[in-house]
Amino acid sequence: MTAPRSLHSLEIALRKHMSGTAPLAAGDRVIVSVSGGSDSTALLLLLHALRDRLGFSLEAIHFDHGLRPDSAREADWVARLAQRLDVPVHLRQGFDPPSKENGMQAAARKWRRGESLALLDSTGARWIATGHQRDDHLETLLLKLLRGVHLAHIRGLEPWAEPWMHPLLAFSRSGLQAYLRERRQDWLEDPSNRWPKYTRNRVRHELMPLLNSLAQGGIAERLEGLERQSRELGEWLAQVPRPGQNDPARPPHWIDADALAALPTLVRCEALHGFVQARLPGAIDAPTVEKAAELVTRSDPWELHLAQGRTLSLRGRRLLLLPRAAAAEPREMVAGAWRLRIADGLDVSVHDPGSGRGGLTVHNLDPAAPLTVRQRLPGDRFHPERQKRPVKLAGFLRDQGVPPWERDHLPLVLTGEEVVAVYPRFVGNGHKTPAPGGRSLRIEIYGW
């Protein structure tokens, strides 16, 4: 019988790390997600080296998104590597990409997550292991800071959040690649990891190197120190008594607005964040939480729309958290020469530009094309005046200083698929100044 080979120094370090922190039990079944990149390839080899010593079984899963000509070759490469290591591999195909490039990465992540959980259920495995490492963790911290995050929630990736395990968060990408070279193991390079259209890639290749040079090589320690202090703040805030609220398992969801308003602002923001995430979890940025914390001190009724179809609504002295009803079909109306399709909840009046009425004037429209009035949808683009081409509407509104809690429900005026105006302030390129023979209207919108 061949004696097991001695462990590499990185394998020893990972074994020590997992033995000290992992809730991994002997007999656990682990499925490692392998793309073929350096991180996931290193994870597969490292876990393969440790599986007998730590007493877990190992399988692999590979996702073929079918988005690149080489995807089938990459799937075959992963299958051959797993076969050489005597690791069963599960291939998953059938990704249905969104019609627009915007949102592709989020859709792919959602598909991979769903397929992973389905495999977990069908095999009885306990863990899905991914190759996220220290650089990914730091990039996640920076992305959260860029998007806006409460001081108590500056968090990167969690190493153990069953059924997900990220055992490489203490190890750098360069260290993992050095390990692969020493093991004489190649890996695949994904060209999309260099595309600057993805924010994470710009953080990785532009922002991190710049910050590291400004911090004299210490940006990782600065970010990790900030995360540690954030955890400590979160632990302290968790000890503060919370206002009265309903049982999360028994909606409708509410929290005592008077007790909430009496809390210091920092504690109030944390209590609001916890209230929302315990009941209808989803993305909510720090500016939106701060806006809700300010509104709750008022006595008059108000509503604040959150992302992912949620609404905070003050009724009496209870702050309600409600799912927004599915949007109804737009209603049709005719106003003079204009045909309009109007989203549910909005009221529209159309006037001649010289009428002296309020609202927003839009020029150079085709009266034969129906106008649509609705709120923003993912992927909407807008062509600002004096710019060469359309831009993402979400980014335009952010650059114009529109608060996050307003961006989702500002009414848009469209002709066909073109956003010609964002009510009540912005008119698109070609529609602000009248041209000879062009048709104009003045539009007033209520209910937003």
Q: What does this molecule look like?
A:
With 448 residues, the protein is an alpha+beta fold. The chain folds into 3 domains: 9-131 and 167-194, Rossmann fold (3-Layer(aba) Sandwich), CATH 3.40.50; 253-323, no CATH class; 331-446, no CATH class. Helices cover 37% and strands 21% of the residues. The chain has helices spanning 9-21, 38-54, 71-84, 104-123, 134-147, 173-182, 199-214, 219-237, 257-261, 265-279, 286-295, 393-399, 404-407; strands spanning 29-33, 57-63, 89-92, 127-129, 160-161, 164-165, 253-256, 302-306, 310-315, 318-323, 331-335, 338-342, 347-351, 360-365, 371-374, 381-382, 391-392, 412-415, 418-422, 426-427, 439-446. It has a 6-stranded mixed sheet with strand order 3-2-1-4-6-5, sandwiched between helices. A 6-stranded mixed sheet has the order 11-12-15-18-19-20, with no helix packed on it. Strands 7-10-9-8 form a 4-stranded antiparallel sheet. Helix 3 (71-84) links the parallel strand 2 and strand 3. Helix 2 (38-54) crosses helix 6 (173-182), helix 5 packs across helix 7 and helix 10 crosses helix 11. The model has no long low-confidence stretch (mean pLDDT 89).
Which class of secondary structure composition applies to the elements?
A: alpha+beta
Task: Determine the number of helices (DSSP H or I, runs of at least 4 residues).
Answer: 13
Strand arrangement, major sheet: 3-2-1-4-6-5
Say how many strands there are: 21
Q: Mean pLDDT, rounded to whole units?
A: 89
Shape: globular
Report the end-to-end length measured between terminal Cα atoms: 75 Å
Computed over alpha carbons, the radius of gyration is 27 Å
Q: Would you identify the CATH H-level superfamily of the largest domain? A: HUPs
Low-confidence stretches: none
Instruction: Kindly state the percentage of residues in helix.
Output: 25-40%
Strand content: 15-25%
Largest sheet: 6 strands, mixed
The number of domains: 3
Give the CATH class of the largest domain. Alpha Beta
CATH architecture label name of the largest domain: 3-Layer(aba) Sandwich
What is the fold-level CATH name, i.e. the topology of the largest domain? Rossmann fold
